[in-house]
């Protein structure tokens, strides 16, 4: 029985499917399935069974889950303790919503590590809203930056930035295709809520790797892109795109910083949370520049559990 196997079990149980667990860990579905198979064989129990409503815990799985969660947390803390003992940089892992990861996470982390009095190794990865709390609880992320995680009592979710969602394109269309970044596939995201308010059927939605790609397609006349207003503003000012009026836009949204309870969160996560309230951080979120160069944009989350 290994931390890899326990981590695969915990994330599959918490997120409800092997697919979601694999996405959160940035590994293949077969890798998660193999880890679960090995754990089942070792313990002599199915642990998780697939039913009409998704994955269901067996009695053994239900008893294992809280213990396994604690072991995964302790494994992460052990790794941090050994890193500190050998003088390695402190690690800061940020789980970010797609647009946040694309445009502001790297500039924010660069600014934070530059001004930090101690050496910090920071990284960010794209995470869907429902996965954020699971990663935080299991110490696979130190802070989440994106939607408000209102349904989880074990985390503290605080607003750090206000923005607006708008529609952009080359002109109005009677039945346009709607071009979205990966947040459009997350039912809990502001993008998905906006599509539902507009009553857009699924066959009229096209998902792109990031907002930049969706904007480029919109500029080519392929449809209307849902964009964050202040991020797309330079392209609108250059005349590449137009703001298209809809019954549901502009829609106000807020980016939230979420951590586990202050008495349990890592000190570095607390320091980064305080940095997000500074004028420097607010300026970066308001004017991040051109976004992250392709060579530095890494959508995956963290794979320390698998190393």
Describe the structure.
There is one protein chain. The chain has 307 residues and is α/β, with parallel strands linked by helices. It has three domains: 82 residues, Arc Repressor Mutant, subunit A; 126 residues, Periplasmic binding protein-like II (D-Maltodextrin-Binding Protein, domain 2); 91 residues, Periplasmic binding protein-like II (D-Maltodextrin-Binding Protein, domain 2, 3-Layer(aba) Sandwich). Helix content is 43%, strand content 21%. Strand 7, helix 8 and strand 8 form a beta-alpha-beta unit. Helix 1 packs across helix 4 and helix 2 crosses helix 3. The chain starts with a helix and ends in a 21-residue tail after the last helix. The C terminus is likely disordered.
């Amino acid at each position: 029985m290994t931390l890899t196997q326990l981590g695969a079990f915990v994330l599959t149980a918490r997120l409800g499917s092997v697919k979601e667990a694999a996405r959160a860990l940035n590994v293949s579905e077969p890798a998660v399935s193999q880890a679960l198979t090995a754990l089942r064989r070792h313990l002599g129990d199915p642990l998780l069974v697939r039913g009409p409503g998704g994955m269901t815990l067996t009695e053994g799985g239900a008893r294992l889950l809280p213990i396994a969660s604690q072991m995964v947390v302790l494994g992460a803390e052990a790794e941090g303790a050994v890193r500190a003992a050998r003088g390695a940089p402190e690690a800061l892992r940020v789980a970010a919503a797609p647009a946040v990861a694309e445009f502001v996470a790297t500039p924010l982390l660069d600014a934070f590590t530059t001004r930090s009095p101690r050496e910090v190794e920071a990284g960010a990865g794209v995470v869907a809203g429902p996965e954020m709390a699971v990663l935080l609880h299991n110490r696979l992320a130190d802070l989440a930056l994106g939607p408000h995680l209102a349904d989880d009592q074990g985390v503290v979710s605080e607003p750090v930035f206000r923005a607006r969602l708008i529609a952009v394109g080359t002109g109005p269309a009677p039945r346009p295709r709607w071009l979205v970044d990966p947040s459009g596939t997350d039912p809990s995201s502001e993008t998905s809520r906006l599509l539902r308010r507009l009553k857009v059927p699924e066959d009229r939605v096209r998902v792109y790797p990031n907002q930049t790609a969706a904007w480029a397609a919109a500029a080519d006349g392929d449809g209307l892109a849902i964009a964050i207003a202040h991020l797309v503003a330079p392209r609108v000012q250059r005349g590449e795109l137009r703001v298209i009026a809809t019954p549901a836009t502009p829609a106000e949204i807020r980016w939230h910083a979420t951590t586990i309870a202050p008495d349990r969160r890592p000190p570095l996560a607390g320091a980064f949370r305080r940095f997000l309230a500074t004028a420097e951080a607010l300026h970066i979120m308001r004017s991040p520049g051109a976004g992250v160069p392709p060579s530095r944009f890494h959508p995956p989350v963290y794979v320390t559990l698998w190393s």
